[in-house]
């Protein structure tokens, strides 16, 4: 399995569609794995235990909701990609402004 530094070097070298597909894949994996974990961690610390079980139960419910097309869950899954686009836009705006 390639290391993160190797992936990052390859990501920085690519351009165009391949670069964007790699960014989408990375952001989607963060949205599918990291975001539900953070939601569970913060939710269990602030609100108490998850009613349907532990973290795996929340992740299962999350994937089921995605498959059923729930808009809120898709916004969580695609949130890192939207954040990437916001960062890109802010960087472009700052470059053109200054």
Architecture overview:
The chain has one domain (24-97). It has helices spanning 4-13, 16-46, 55-67, 71-97. With 98 residues, the chain is mostly helical.
**SSE succession:** HHHH
Shape: elongated
* Arithmetic mean of pLDDT: 91
Strand content: under 5%
How big is the Rg? 17 Å
Number of helices: 4
Helix fraction by DSSP (H/I, runs of at least 4): over 70%
- Uncertain runs: none
Number of domains: 1
Distance from N terminus to C terminus (CA atoms, Å) equals 42 Å
The assigned structural class equals mainly alpha
Number of strands: 0
Largest sheet: none
Task: Summarize the entry for a quick read.
Helices cover 83% and strands 0% of the residues.
What tags apply to this protein structure?
4 helices; elongated; mainly alpha; 98 residues
Reconstruct the topology from this structure.
Blueprint: H1 4-13, H2 16-46, H3 55-67, H4 71-97
Helix pairs in contact: 2-3, 2-4
